[in-house]
Specification:
Elements (H helix, E strand, L loop, with lengths): L2 H14 L9 H12 L7 E4 L2 E4 L8 E7 L13 E3 L2 E3 L3 H17 L8 E7 L11 H7 L6 E6 L7 E3 L3 E10 L3 E2 L9 H4 L1 H9 L3 E5 L2 E14 L5 E2 L2 E10 L5 H12 L4 E8 L9 H10 L3 E3 L6 H6 L4 E3 L14 E3 H17 L2
Parallel strand pairs: 3-6, 3-7, 7-17, 8-16
Antiparallel strand pairs: 1-2, 2-6, 4-5, 5-18, 8-17, 9-14, 9-15, 10-13, 11-12, 12-14
Length: 358
């Protein structure tokens, strides 16, 4: 194991040892702020709640932002203590995304920031693992309007070491089917709300994914029922049945258009209410810094068939991609882990890009 890999592994382990499940990010934010005040001038450390922006947003050089969330999902009952075993770091958030955070902090320590061809800033925030409107990134954008000047953002989510462009939008819709209760021995005296959902469920069972292509990148629009509830007794015909529909829609489609898709699907079969709305992220294949990233590093690029805060940057008019050392298959898993060699590769690739991007 190289010295760099060992150092990044130890940093990731230290971050994993500071629990930060969503809503409980204070201890980790305090730790990062203390570290930041040892590595940045006081004027370049901005904290809002448990989120931070580090660096000079008014520097005249093109600004590149390294972006990462401080929170994790809640702990799993089977999780063991953070540790290193072989060439992996184990701990809640190791892949999603404390390994990425460790790389971000190391780059701040290692790079000659004043001499880089780009102006480098760090954006670290709370509450990413929850609803769109509760994310700490939104208040940061409101407090620091200069973030709109960022030319290129790199969200260090787990991507298996691949640059992932764009992201699908996501919405959740509550579909409420109404009927009339009756004794289950005489169902003709009522109207079964669960049965009324049958045609929609049958349609979704065979509905194919919809392919949307942006240049070299393919995204898939999909609709899935993810929760269902209804019925109040085993011998009562249910008068209400509710489904949660999750719709993942491709870049280029607005939230309003996605809502219209849901209404077209459901028609008048059920009442529709929307509970969480998050936009899609732009495919920034035409961004010169994105092109330079691929050219300098040789990294492959693929579409992001999931939602990330690349979408929130897109809403600001800022191009961003996803690139991080974590493994997507490890995100939100019990006994989560991250590969140590990938930490060093991510550091080396980003260091080359940031020092030669001009």
């Amino acid at each position: 194991m190289s010295d760099l890999a060992h150092r990044l592994a130890q940093s990731t382990l230290a971050l994993c040892r500071i629990p930060s499940p969503i809503g409980e990010e204070k201890a980790l934010a305090d730790h990062v702020e203390t570290w930041a005040r040892a590595h940045f001038p006081p004027a370049e450390v901005f904290r809002l709640g448990h989120s931070l922006v580090l660096g000079n947003l008014l520097d005249p050089r093109p600004t590149v932002a390294l972006v990462g969330h401080l929170d994790t999902v809640p702990a799993h009952p089977e999780d063991r203590a953070p540790r290193i075993e072989g060439e992996r770091v184990f701990g809640l958030g190791a892949s999603d995304m404390k390994g990425g955070l460790a790389v971000m902090l190391a780059l701040a320590e290692d790079l000659p920031r004043a001499r880089l061809p780009v102006n480098l800033v760090w954006v670290l925030y709370e509450r990413e693992e929850g609803p769109y409107l509760e994310s700490g990134l939104g208040p940061l954008f409101e407090a620091r309007d200069e973030l709109r000047r960022v030319r290129f953002g790199i969200a260090m989510e787990p991507t298996d070491g691949v640059v992932q462009v764009g992201c699908v939008g996501t919405l959740h819709a509550s579909l409420r089917f109404s009927g009339r209760s009756a004794h289950s021995a005489r169902p003709w005296q009522g109207e079964n709300a669960i049965h009324k959902a049958g045609p929609l469920l049958a349609h979704l069972l065979t509905r194919p994914r919809r392919e949307v292509v942006h240049g070299d990148f393919t995204f898939y629009e999909v609709m899935s029922i993810t929760k269902a509830s209804g019925g109040r007794a085993r011998n009562v015909v249910p008068e209400a049945f509710e489904l949660n529909l999750n719709y993942r829609f491709a870049p280029g489609k607005t939230v309003a258009q996605a809502q219209a898709d849901v209404h077209a699907l459901v028609g008048d079969a059920a009442e529709v209410g929307f509970t969480d709305l998050a936009p899609s992220g732009r495919v920034c294949a035409d961004n010169p810094l994105f092109q330079r990233l691929l050219a300098l590093t040789g990294l492959p690029a693929a579409s992001k068939q999931a939602w990330t805060d690349v979408a929130r940057f897109s809403e600001l008019g800022v191009d961003a991609v996803n690139f991080g050392p974590g493994e997507t298959a490890q995100a939100h898993q019990a006994n989560e882990s991250a590969p140590i060699p990938a930490l060093a590769v991510a550091h080396e690739k980003l260091a080359r890009f940031l020092t030669e991007a001009g």
